[in-house]
Task: structure prediction
Amino acid sequence: MTDMTQDLTFAARSQWWDVWEQFKTHRGALFGMIVFATILAVCFIGPLIWPVDASTVNIGARNQGMSLAHPFGTDQLGRDLFARLMMGGRISLVVGSAAMILSIVIGTAVGMISGFFRLVDGVLMRLTDLFLALPLLPLLLVLSMLFRDPLSAVFGVELGTLLLIVAAISLTSWMGTARVVRSDVLTLKEREFVLAARSIGVPTWRIMPRHILPNVLSSIMVSATLMMATAIMTESALSFLGLGFPPEFATWGRLVSDGIDYLQDYPGRAILPGFLISLTVLSINYIGDGLRDALDPRIRGH
Amino acid sequence: MSEPLFEIRDLKLHFPIYGGLLRHQIGSVKAVDGVSFDIFKGETLGLVGESGCGKSSCGRGLLRLSEPSSGEVVFDGRQVTALSHKEMRAIRTRMQMVFQDPQASLNPRMTVSEIISEPLNEHANLKRRALIARVCELMDAVGLNRAFLNRYPSSFSGGQRQRIGIARALALNPDFIVCDEPIAALDVSIQAQVVNLLKDLQEQFSLTYLFISHDLSMVRHIADRVAVMYLGKIVELADTELLYQRPSHPYSKALLSAVPGAVASRRADAPREVLKGDLPSPANPPKGCNFCTRCPHVMDICRTTEPELKAVAPGQYSACHLND
Result:
């Protein structure tokens, strides 16, 4: 009796161990995780070790090349590019993950409800179509024009803009997830194990998280990694167009757009942040890929 | 015979068909169209018929997994169709189901212990230790190794998965189990094992079965009485040996003649009764007797009047005008 209980607790721990074991066998995912962890560490811990202010203007030291004092050189105002890249990374990563989480939550909720409850399916799906039909950039333009100042007044410039951008990106990108989740739920709810749960007397609100959600997890995971990438890029696009953060805040997107003007003389200034965006997106995609495989017991195998 | 556990009176399951521009109801599929029978305590009632005749719908209707359109289902003196959500949830502990496809009936993301303990978590409020003990007990009962407690369904064979499904159905000590073609998706070598397991469990836990199948020889092996369904109706209901010795309804005869060696009295070289044509659409069943389009002995009355299920011998009921 005692050893059986021990067995089970041991096994509950080893379930996550199994996930890790399987994750490790996916080389791309492992590589992606190392890269992503490095980027995170540099962006968030880096400033403690490299305490150069990202917005200090030093006209005397502008347009410098790589040196010990400025590992990636300086920009046209003499600001340290390495410090700006770290600052930009912090903002881009926070915006990307927050927008991703929010849009996944909205998309999953809408998809689950409309897949499961026939009554509201039509309404919710037409709403999804409506959002899909909205032209993204004009909408964001209007949103940032309308809400930037009130939000900045309440939360301060940085947090206000962050909230605005996260809300704008997630409100305009949950539709894909909603559709994918809905279609998965539609097939899953007819499966016999859901019928079996009903025959046991499990109420609907417990069937959804216990039987449906874990089985749409892989689709959600794929959506999530793609969404994070899209969110970082949308933020970059917004900053590039001047709709995102104010000029003194560096984000990867703004660094690219600033660098474009000097592309011929100092190509590194646009290429470096661009490369970091691509690297982050790629590593997240690989992590998502590995995680999806590792979470699926059919692939995991024992 | 002991007292009835289930009394089914004129049970109908009609599924609406929507069509047209405004998606209004243009008809209905009469999956189960007025069946009446009793299931006695401790017996196994076999329910046979070809694909699409409404066997599974009938089983689901009994458990109210599909809402019956009309008719009465009385379980142990209580009208199942009139129960509220809450009462239904409580009574579900006494009637369970084993599903056809063991691949689809187990959640691939739950371990065996999670699957078997789900009904216990829902209804039996056990402490963790008692829960694991009960799950292990159930796994022993269906012949699964306890060491597989934390494996996922994907690492089991079809027969083992079906055992998991049976263990789940047994978890709450039910009185009644609907076995919805539990062996149809299994290898022949495993079928006998599972059927024998069901038989043993029936003795051990004094269960009552509704055994839905199209495998006539397995039904003969396990069932006490057999109901033959055709197009949503029961055409013959008889004690197993009576049915297999001398089937009364032309459809039962044809069905049995399709199984080599099923009817003992028939010589091996006797001509088979082969039915012509297909099952008519249950959305538009023929007038009169449902079987009149394919019956080799069809008469004029068959096309106009619906025959009723009448006793033709002690323990044998048949719905055919030939008996009159």
